[in-house]
Amino acid sequence: MTLLSFDAVDAFYGRAQVLRGVSLAIGKGERVGLLGRNGVGKTTVVNALQGIAQVGRGAVVMAGQPAPRIRHYSAARAGISVVPQGRRIIPALSVRENLLLGAAVARPGPWTLARVFELFPVLKERQHTPGTALSGGQQQMLAIGRALMANPDLLVLDEPSEGLAPVIVDELAEVFVRLADEGTSLLLIEQHISLIRRVVEKYHIMSKGMIVDSGPLAQLTTEKLKQLVAV
């Protein structure tokens, strides 16, 4: 089953076009990486899912259903949760309250506060602390936990390693692999190549708003990375 597909999608902010004919698909049980330099349109893929960027041509299909008019809640209702770049923790809410926001879509499934606290024990210890009082790594855990509370079939992670220490990135890699092994599909948008290599099985590389290379991760060479991603 295909959980999310972009079919020749052009996407815009007002009159400014960012995505040009982007096609990709994530099926049930898949771990897909989206790579590229800064400013090539990776986050616009996420924003197109959330109605922030406008889809002008092409089709976005969520959980097998075309989405001709995308709203901010469309992805969550279709079983797609986004962990946004920058985390977007609500400052006025506690850790617990931020997590409960993720459950607002009321999708049935296994993720509860107790299970999130089992995955990230530090969130249980600090559940009554304001969300923005956490360290950067803890805030990323909170953003992931909040997304899981929506009981997604597909978790979209936009630059989750940004600004984090290597030891925290290693911890997140283990979490992502565990989630995938338990059945959650992943779309990992990253520049941290070692994280991509530890987590995903298929890749797409973007340049100038287009997908310029795709394939099994095992076929992604260092030479191609240097050419297209400048690592």
From TrEMBL:
UniProt cross-references to Gene3D superfamilies, sorted A to Z: P-loop containing nucleotide triphosphate hydrolases
Specify the domain of life of the species encoding this protein: Bacteria
Pfam families, alphabetized: ABC_tran
Q: Does the keyword Transport apply?
A: yes
The molecular function terms of the Gene Ontology recorded here are: ATP binding; ATP hydrolysis activity; branched-chain amino acid transmembrane transporter activity
The record's section on InterPro entries has:
AAA+_ATPase, ABC_transporter-like_ATP-bd, ABC_transporter-like_CS, BCAA_Transport_ATP-bd_LivF, P-loop_NTPase
Give GO BP annotations, semicolon-separated.
Answer: L-amino acid transport
Q: Which UniProt keywords apply?
A: Amino-acid transport, ATP-binding, Nucleotide-binding, Transport
- Claim: ATP-binding is one of the keywords in the record: yes
Q: Which SMART domains match?
A: AAA
Q: Which stretches make up the ABC transporter domain?
A: 4-231
Which protein family is it in? Answer: Belongs to the ABC transporter superfamily.
Family annotation (PANTHER family): HIGH-AFFINITY BRANCHED-CHAIN AMINO ACID TRANSPORT ATP-BINDING PROTEIN LIVF (PTHR43820)
Q: What is this protein called?
A: ABC transporter ATP-binding protein
> Which source organism does the UniProt entry give?
Xanthobacter flavus
